[in-house]
Amino acid sequence: KAEEAERKAKEEELAKQNKKNAEKIAKINDLINQGNANLNTGKSGDALKKYEEAVKFLPIDQGEPSFSSSKYAEIASNLYDAAEREKNPETKSTLMNNAVKYAQKAIEKDPSNAKAHFILAMNAENNKDAVTAEKELELAVKNDPNNYLYYYYMLVFLFYTIFLEYFYFNIFFLLSQIVAINAIIIVNNKIIKGGIDNSVPSL
Question: Taking 70 as the threshold, does the pLDDT of residue 43 lie above it?
Answer without folding.
Answer: yes
